Amino acid sequence: MKENSGMIYDDVKKCVDDVISYIGKDITYAMTLALGKPVLFINELYSRAKKDPEIKLKIITALSLEIPKGSSELERRLMQPIVDKVFAGVPEFDYMLDFRAGTLPKNVEVFEFYSKAGSILNNPEAQQHHLSSHYTHVVRDAIALGANVFGELISYREIDGKIKYSMACNPDICLETIRLFNEKKAKGEKVLVIGEANKKLPFMYGDAVVEAENYDMILKGPQFDYELFCPPKDSVSLSDHMIGINVSPLIKDGGTIQVGIGALGDAIVSGLIMRNEHNALYQEILEKSGIKKRYKNLILNWGDTGRFEKGLYGSSEMFVDAFMQMYKSKILKRKVFDSIPLMKLINSGKLAPDNIPPDIIDQLLEMKAVHRKLKAKDFAFLTEFGILKKGLSYEDYTIIDGENRYSADMNKEKNRQEIRKLLGKELLKGTVILGAFFLGPKSFYQALNDMSEEERQLFAMSGVETVNQLYGGEELRTLQRKNARFVNTGMVATVFGAIASDQLENGLVVSGIGGQYNFVAMGHVLPDARIIIMIKSTKGSGKSLKSNIVFSYGHCSIPKHMRDIVVTEYGIADIRSKPEQEVIAEMINIADSRFQPQLVEQAKKAGKLPLDYEIPEEYRNNTPEKISALLKPYQSQGLFPQFPFGTELTEVDVSLVRALKGLKGLAKGNRSKLIKGMALELFRPIPKTAQHYLDRMKLLHPSSTNERILRKVVVFALRSANILQSSENPLPLQASTRVESK
Fold first, then answer.
1. Do residues 592 and 706 both lie within one domain?
2. Taking Cα atoms as reference points, which of 225, 234, 227 lies closest to residue 197?
3. Which domain holds residue 380?
4. Cβ(534)–Cβ(572) under 8 Å?
5. What is the per-residue pLDDT for 3?
6. What is the rounded average pLDDT of the residues 479-501?
7. Which phi and psi angles does 406 have, rounded to 5°?
8. N or C: which end of the chain has fewer CB within 10 A?
């Protein structure tokens, strides 16, 4: 097959035929994580392997996005209308349907380096095939496993009369894969790169823009313009919101931020938007919660509580809707440029992206960023970034502006003064975020597609080897990522500051390490950076309630010697550069108070705390009731909604989700209460306030004994969640316009 041919196919069957004909029947197929998978290609390739046992197919990927099904009849009744609305037209991965059903053929193996949290806990095959690999090492490991075909979802459009392609949502591992595959081709090895072009995928810029020749085969046509997978927003609880509030004063104006997907990411951004748009209320909450007093020095040295005048820059492997919300709220607005001298001038306050000073050429000359006699490459640099205005040309040390000609010899004061007439008004090619992949709700994709080309270029995409580390561009990336706050999530933290994020202590993988280690390492290298790990203080409920702050744990993702800042809903533990005794005390201070005595006792027994140590009084009331008492009064003002940035779910959907989730928790944590409650419910009449919920579940008029029982289960779940009593005055689902600053 001709190398780098960029051949266009409109028939996926013919494309797969040619792949098998060229590669053979031993195929190790790698594809990017999450949204960037070419669904129709992999479905056809998998179909061939199902039909032909001689084909040996290995699939290497991560986050194979799955449309939720529901594991019980009640969950299916709840989920189906939501699925029909949210996922209409979204194709599914056939290999994952069979994988979940346990019917994957023996000649097909699936290896994932990252899975949806908790989705493979009870799947021995997935546990045995998990690849424990840092995000930046994934390509290396896939090639070591024999990857010979690579596929990704791409976007395309005409630019300057030529069709250009964009890796769009996933340049993360694609750029490196194509580079290494080209090296293999040069050695005569048989490898192929497949692109599946979808017009609905936002066309992104930065390093994501590539030529057709990067692909051996490109699938293109109306049948490939299918709907994109769009996970609905997670509900944000009051404790999540409190974590967001605790993180918010650690983010420095004019700095850099990384946040992830999900409830905690939304909670952080919700807190930052409150800080920016309703600062008086924000300050009031900081005072009432004690955050200002407890962490005064930490905030003074490392954070801010004021509005975002300079704004933030995003540097995050995941470009998610939370960043879009910060952009809309004029928080994500600090522009960076791919130029060391420009970033030095900007960081020192001598240059602003929207204001080019008259002496800019003099400053660049002093820095030796350009030659004193401007060469062609100097002129290209000055025009590329808008320092010199558009429409100029260069010829033989002369800058031409229409009829006028200007000497490029900057040794003479007169020429330096004259060239000021040619300066631009603002810098060009600035970006407000650098991401490696994106994933989000429909509104997120729509917002990107609705932008002008110029505006969308503010959102740059690149490979994970660029986003997640400093290597290869240390000076520039350090300048761009000033005052970085790398905010990540962990599952369990020890009192010594070690974090478990990807695996349980019994060896079962929950998700994968992803890029967390990379960001932690980078956070310790950058001189003004901090790493913030968020931990929910407890998990479970009732008798199954457990602390996520523990004395010791049988696995760690981030070792204690790389500890920095840990945040729970109860506060902030600043544990970098501190001795063990102080670290342990600070970690216990942010634990749930129901578990603090045991932690203190364990630490004393191990000789890690003085025998006379006592928890300070102000940290002994870490309870959910305390958080509820603080935040609930503000909900009437539109603050702390369940869905800060909207949801496609109705209020009835949200209430039912909460009720059934609570029922599941009751089944695990307090079965006796569940049994007694259900027994009592069987003899109660159906309350009128439950009717619209039952109608939504198609249980208002049951037609069988099973449906009558299910109806009672739903009513009990609603009653247990206090939804029936409060249905006339539901909590806000999203931020209200009623919020007023005091």
1. no
2. 225
3. 340-422
4. no
5. 53
6. 98
7. -125, 135
8. C
